[in-house]
User: What shape does this take?
Amino acid sequence: MIKIFLKPGKEEPLLRRHPWVFSGAIERSDGRPEEGDVVEVCSSSGQPLGVGHAQVGSIAVRMLSFEAQEINAHFWRQALQKACDLRKKTVLTDATTCYRLAHGEADGLPGLIVDVYGSTAVLQAHTAGMYLARHDLAQALRSVCGDSLKAVYDKSAATVPFKANLNAADGYLWGERQPEPALENGIRFEIDWEGGQKTGFFLDQRDNRSLLERYCRGRSVLNLFCYTGGFSAYALRGGATRVCSVDSSARAVAQACSNVALNFGDHAPHEAHVADAFDFLQSAGGGYDVMVLDPPAFAKHAGALRNALQAYRRLNALALKQAPQGGVIFTFSCSQVVSREQLCSAVFSAALDSRRSVRILHRLAQPPDHPVSIYHPEGEYLKGLALYVE
Assistant: This one.
């Protein structure tokens, strides 16, 4: 195993258990690791600090362990078992069969996402190291999940580093497609993990969808950036008199309609539109008591932050101007580079622009199966507000 030695004093972040080693902290190595290799990280004096996956870029090593240990089949099983145990304690019930089993750094598995939909686990590698370990990870998942698991699907082609030249292709590492719907709090969803966005469904909004349900009885609901209709289904179960789903993707809208029909039949008070959310909101003319603003990440890197904040401000100002007296708005950002304070500031500016009196009912976040390591606050990416408009 190649050893990487840090510059004097640069071991402090690792001693505080932060899982990233930046390239500027490295003094030398006793070899030249390939991207994805497991390397040992040492202080300048040679003290072992742990092991991790080497990669090209500003983050040079993502730490797998803060001990000098072998990364083998036992390691993967143990890490995934700990992750699974946490989910059993926090989110898994008979009414919920879809959840995030592994959430990157928060589970000591940086660069790895594993989402479970019923009897299928969908693996997504964001680093070369995790992609190279995909078959070992699939075996570990079979061991941890037992007979309830029937298939492991790898959906890493779009997420592994392009420059690593891995020629990644999506496909089943074990088993074959399982056609059954997944359950979330008793609502059935058909998940397209092969062709849908991310791993097929936005599991991180589970708790926020449940909260929305409480505000929908007897009200009309507008779900913008609806994707496959998660918020819409909860609104209907909550007793909404009318639900409107809007997304720019015709495929997503069709899936949203299918999920509504799966749970509430063909005559549910639901309509759907393929449209730009900003254009639809501007021309909607009000009439919606509850609105959901759940856009894709407006900023995927720090260079896009300024434009992203302007977009959040504009979106929320449009919604606030359209909201009736007593209206409720659920507004979100899933951009990791947008802080909770920055989102609040953008919404504050939008409220001033709209000249409405606005109160915060709830501060919203990601659920327990998307935990945040206290040593890696960068893992908190989903943030939101539930607003009351007068």
The mean pLDDT is 96. The first helix runs from residue 12 to 15. The longest strand covers residues 358-365.
